């Protein structure tokens, strides 16, 4: 039998056709895994995101400013991305996970510690 660590390793992966009832959609995965859930319209998409107990980040790709603003204000995540692949802040931004998407209550970093009991949202956009 090989090394246990080798047996437990999953290469970077993309899972398509994930539905909200699947384990992949119901658990927070820390790793190089992308799960693609499809929605019929923007309202269904926002509802799926807001129904999750793991609200670390969400991104939308659009040329519609109205849809971008709706996601910015209606999606309840700690990090929101508009036209960026991963809404991951740089080291000088606070990490803004919400609900169950964080270990403990240590949300603050740097100056953000002063806003410990608030729920800041980090917005990262890219318009071309």
What features would you describe in this structure?
By secondary structure, the protein is α/β, with parallel strands linked by helices. It has two domains: 1-38, no CATH class; 53-128, no CATH class. It is built from four helices and five strands. The strands form two sheets. Strands 3-4-5 form a three-stranded parallel sheet, with helices on one face. A two-stranded parallel sheet has the order 1-2. Strand 3 (57-60), helix 4 and strand 4 (79-82) form a beta-alpha-beta unit. The relative contact order is 0.14. The mean pLDDT is 78.
Give the secondary structure arrangement, pairings included.
Layout (H helix, E strand, L loop, with lengths): L3 H4 L5 E6 L4 H4 L6 E5 L4 H10 L5 E4 L4 H10 L4 E4 L39 E4 L3
Parallel strand pairs: 1-2, 3-4, 4-5
TL;DR of this structure?
This protein has 128 residues and is of the alpha/beta class. The protein has four helices and five strands, in the order αβαβαβαββ. The chain folds into two domains: 1-38, no CATH class; 53-128, no CATH class.
Major beta sheet, strand line-up: 3-4-5
Number of strands: 5
- What is the beta-strand fraction? 15-25%
Number of domains: 2
Give the helix level as a range of percent. Answer: 10-25%
- Contiguous low-pLDDT stretches (5 residues minimum) are none
**Sequence of secondary-structure elements:** HEHEHEHEE
Quaternary organisation:
single chain
Alpha-beta content class: alpha/beta
